[in-house]
Amino acid sequence: MPGVYLSYPFCAQKCTYCNFASGVFPRELERGYQAALLEELERQRWPWMPETLYWGGGTPSTAPEPFLAAAMARIPGRPWREATIEAAPGSVTDERIHTWRAAGINRVSLGVQSFVQPEIARTGRKHTAETVACETALLRAHGLDNFNIDLIAGLAGQTWTSWRQSLDWIERLAPPHVSVYMLEVDEDSRLGGELLRGGIRYGAADVPPEDRIAEFYEYAVERLAACGLRRYEISNFARPGWESLHNLKYWRREPYLGFGADAHSFAGGMRWQNVESAEEYVARWRAGQSVRGAETAARPEEEKFFVGLRLMDGVRLESSDFVRFGEPLRRFLAAGLLERQGETVRLTSRGVLLSNEVFEEFVSV
Fold first, then answer.
1. Per-residue pLDDT tens for 97-116?
2. Domain 299-365, what fold?
3. Where are the domains of the chain?
4. 274-296 confidence digits (pLDDT tens)
5. Which of 4, 15, 102, 234 has the fewest CB atoms within 10 Å of its CB?
6. How large is the angle between the packed helices 65-73 and 27-43, nearest 10 degrees?
7. What's the CA angle centered on 268, arms 267 and 269, to 5 degrees?
8. In this structure, CATH architecture of domain 3-251
9. Longest C-alpha distance within the chain, in Å?
């Protein structure tokens, strides 16, 4: 099931936890980016008919409506099986929903992160729980029943009480899909940088400890299951039949083409990535240079495990897997991080919490 990813890295504000190549940029750069992205799409020669489409960011829900429609008109395959746009709460309006539906959007991913006002404020966001409730009702009123809500476990100031409040709102709003991410700590976000340096800005001193974040995540797994939302991937939960078709292709190693700054592609056994920053992307376009980075050959033997094991269904073992990965497979099975059923191996509940350590073994062998 081939797909298309479109990057729109422009935001009204930079959230403290965000480690993506997105942010607040000058309007002139944004206009240049729109022109560059349209031309990149126009020049594409499609090796197959896309079945899914995903607008990521940034905040693509605030992109000018004529630009959004023009970009999607350059992509074949409409009506796509799934066409998603990421939206920040507070940006969903009647007019925008009309534009999205007219352009072919049939799924919305809301970057809520928290329903608790003090936590929301410390991230730099400005929405309220009531904003999200009103916008999910608006989506449903327009026939957009297929929507996702993002939550983050581990935000500054998060407690058991506040985490339960966010999950109570999930139960109340009954979305068909929820994503739960444990806070990532790295230098690419302002909050992560403060944590690594032992600082206190952005509420770093009030971020829960790692073991508490893991407990929040495990509690969410239980609560979401009780709501009929099955964990089908480490961070993703859905009612049966409402899984994200586009995101599944990443973990199933199906082909996709990425457009815009920092967009990744996988096709014909090769992987490549566009230049990371919006500034360089536009500068290269204006200079008549390629925006694409170097291609590298995919490594299916490794990717089978460090990508495929993210799925709760696991991966099917072949006899050749034990030639290269026999030692880590046997070690993780013995340690209870992996479990085997017939010819399928999957992460255990404990293995999910230590998944990065598991995945590293299948890259470094």
1. 999 999 999 999 999 999 99
2. Arc Repressor Mutant, subunit A (1.10.10)
3. 3-251, 299-365
4. 999 999 999 999 999 999 998 99
5. 102
6. 10
7. 90
8. Alpha-Beta Barrel (3.20)
9. 57
